[in-house]
Amino acid sequence: MTTYKIAVLPGDGIGPDVTAEAIKVLEALKQQDPDFKIEFRPFEWGSEYYLEHGRIMPEDGLDQLKSFDAILFGAVGDKRVPDEITIWELIMPIRKNFQQYVNMRPIRRLAGIESPLKNEQPIDFMVFRENAEGEYSNIGGRLYQQQSQEMAIQNTVITKQGVERIAKYAFEYARKNKKSKVTSATKSNAIIHSMKLWDEVVKEVAEDYGEIELESNFIDALAAYFVMRPESFEVVVASNLFGDILTDLGAALVGGLGVSPSGNINPDRTFPSMFEAIHGSAPDIAGKGIANPIAQIWSAALMLDHLGRPDLSTAIVDAIEQVLQEGRVLTPDLGGTSTTQELGSAIAEKVQQLIVK
Ligand code: NAD
Ligand code: MN
C-alpha cells in the first residue's frame, strides 16, 4: 500500500494557521481509513528563513522537494521582505521547474455560502490558468531611472507549446466531465502579438474537440460576464495574469478568498504538483487566529484527488458543505465568530462521520 509523502511549506502570515487545519483534516481521514497512509514533512522556508539566511530556500531546495508525491503550500508574503523575493525565489521556481503548467481553480458556490450576487443560480465552473509563462515574466527592465523619460519594459512570453498544453488540458477536462463549452479569455484586439498567438492555438486545439463549443471573450467583457451570468460558464482557460485576476473575481462571487482553493498541476507527473489556497498571507489578519481554513482544506482535497483518492477528496468537500450549511462554526469572513482552529476541527470531525468504515 502506498504511503503518500507530502512536503509541507506553511509559509508566512496565515499560511501556517490554515495549513495546520488542512493537515488536521487529513490526519482525521487517516485515523478513520486504515487504507489511507500519508506522511508530512515540514519545510520552514519563507520570510523568516530569508531574514535569517539571506535566501528564501536552500540552494538545493528544489532537489529536496522533487521526490515527494505532492506539496502543500501555505502562502508567502511579509512586509519586511520584497514580494519579488517571496514570489520569484520560492513560488515561481517551484511552479516553473516542476513544470506545474496548469493552475486549476474551481469556482464553485458551496451549499451554505451566500454570494454577493442577488441571483441564486448555481455557480460551478473550473478555471485553468496557464501557470508557467505569459505575463508573469522577469524579462524586461528599467531605463533612464530618476529621469523624466524614465521607462519600464515588461515582456510577455507566449509560446505555441505553452498555449497548446494548457488548452488541451482544459478541453480534455471538459470532455471527461461532459461539459459543452470552453471559454477562452483573450485581448487580441489590443495585445496583437501574444494574444493573437493565444487565440490561434486555442482555436486549433478546439478543432479536435468537435462536441465542445469554444467561446472566446475579451478579458474586460469576460470580467463583466462573470458577474452578470456566472452560471453560464463551465470551463475557462486563461493566461497567467488574466487567470489570476479572473479567479480572485470568481472567488468573490462564491464566498471570497477564504474559501477558494487551487492546484498547481504537473500533468505529466514528472515532478510533484503543489496545492494552495489562492489567497496570500493576509497580513491584515495574521496572528489573530481568525483566517478561514476552508480554502486550504479544499486545496488538500484537490491534492487527494490528484493522488488517486477522489473518494476522500469528495468526503472533504461534503464535510465542508455540511459544516457551512449547519452555520454554527464560521469564521468572521463568513459572518461568524469562530476561530481558524474551531472551523478546522468541525470539518475534521464531520469528515470522520462521513467515512465511517
Ligand atoms: P491576500 O489574499 O493575502 O489578502 C486579501 C484580503 O483577503 C485580505 O483582506 C485578507 O484578510 C483576506 N483573506 C485572505 N485569505 C483569507 C482567509 N483565509 N480568511 C479570511 N480572509 C482572508 O492578498 P494581499 O493582501 O494582496 O497580499 C498579501 C501578501 O500575500 C502579499 O505579500 C502578496 O504578495 C502575498 N500573496 C502570496 C500568494 C501566494 O503565496 N501564493 C498569493 C497572493 C498574494
Ligand atoms: Mn493571485
The radius of gyration is 20 Å
Report the sheet with the most strands, covering strand number, pairing sense and barrel closure: 10 strands, mixed
Fraction in helix: 40-55%
Give the low-confidence spans.
none
The CATH superfamily of the largest domain is known as Isopropylmalate Dehydrogenase
Q: Can I get a quick summary?
A:
The chain is of the alpha/beta class.
Structure overview:
- This protein is α/β, with parallel strands linked by helices.
- The chain has two domains: 1-101 and 260-357, Isopropylmalate Dehydrogenase; 115-254, Isopropylmalate Dehydrogenase (3-Layer(aba) Sandwich), CATH 3.40.718.
- The chain is built from eleven helices and twelve strands.
- It starts with a strand and ends with a helix.
- The chain binds nicotinamide-adenine-dinucleotide (NAD) and manganese (II) ion (MN).
- Residues 244, 248, 278 line the site of manganese (II) ion.
Descriptive labels:
357 residues; alpha/beta; Isopropylmalate Dehydrogenase; two-stranded antiparallel sheet; 12 strands; binds nicotinamide-adenine-dinucleotide; binds manganese (II) ion
Q: How are the SSEs placed, and which strands pair?
A:
Blueprint lengths: L2 E9 L3 H18 L4 E6 L4 H7 L7 H5 L4 E6 L7 H15 L4 E7 L15 E7 L9 E4 L7 E4 L5 H17 L4 E6 L7 H13 L6 E6 H10 L6 E4 L1 H14 L7 E5 L7 E5 L16 H14 L2 H17 L13 H15 L3
Parallel strand pairs: 1-2, 1-3, 3-12, 5-10, 8-9, 8-10
Antiparallel strand pairs: 4-5, 4-11, 6-7, 11-12
Helix pairs in contact: 1-9, 1-11, 5-6, 7-8, 9-10, 10-11
The chain binds nicotinamide-adenine-dinucleotide and manganese (II) ion (MN).
Nicotinamide-adenine-dinucleotide (NAD) binds next to helix 4.
